[in-house]
Amino acid sequence: MRIAELSRRTGMPMPTIKYYLREGLAHPGERLSVNQTSYDETHVRRLTLVRALIEVGGLSIAAAREVLRSLDSREALFTVLATMQNHLVTPVEQSAETVADKARDRVRTLVAGRGWHVDLDSPPATVLVDALATLDRLGHHDYATILDTLADAGQRVAEAEVGAVVGREDQDVVEAAVVGTALGGVVLNSLRLLAHQHASATAFGA
């Protein structure tokens, strides 16, 4: 197919497709002549994945390139997901002040109590610590009382997402996990915000 057809199939403008190709996010098409290049179904699938990671998942071009490189190299699932998570959240420099120490202890206790096998130095953990410390600084100490409830919800979601890809071919599992990690947060947060609307209307009679 020509690039115009590729644009129609993927829903991407041709300049965007050319940009992603120049950035090495998809393999080049087959050169037919100086002004003509042919593309196939692998380009449709790859560009759809690129769009999911960047335009929906919010990854930068550089981050998407690294995730795709990890995916293409057929690295182990945990390695690919670690690469993905490292780009989905941006850790802040942790303070040594007491409120941050308390937040770190709270996260450590939560993880230990639930028997989770996680990296407490990973970006998701450090972002969680900073969020809890910020809540404390703002005086919202009561938020900590629902932390276990949120962890329960997070665990159920994670188990459902992992369960959804179990049984696929090895590489399909890795790609499905990457897509789920990138878009799952978008879906989950959207559902959470919709549920907030309902809960607020119920609680306050709006």
TrEMBL record:
Residues 1-70 form the HTH merR-type domain. Pfam families: MerR_1. It comes from the Bacteria. The lineage of its organism: Bacteria, Bacillati, Actinomycetota, Actinomycetes, Pseudonocardiales. Keywords: DNA-binding. This is DNA-binding transcriptional MerR regulator. The keyword DNA-binding applies. The keyword Ribosomal protein does not apply. CDD domains: HTH_MerR-like_sg5. It comes from Saccharothrix violaceirubra. GO terms for molecular function: DNA binding; DNA-binding transcription factor activity. PANTHER family: HTH-TYPE TRANSCRIPTIONAL REGULATOR ADHR (PTHR30204:SF98), REDOX-CYCLING DRUG-SENSING TRANSCRIPTIONAL ACTIVATOR SOXR (PTHR30204). InterPro entries: DNA-bd_dom_put_sf (IPR009061), MerR-type_HTH_dom (IPR000551), MerR_fam (IPR047057).
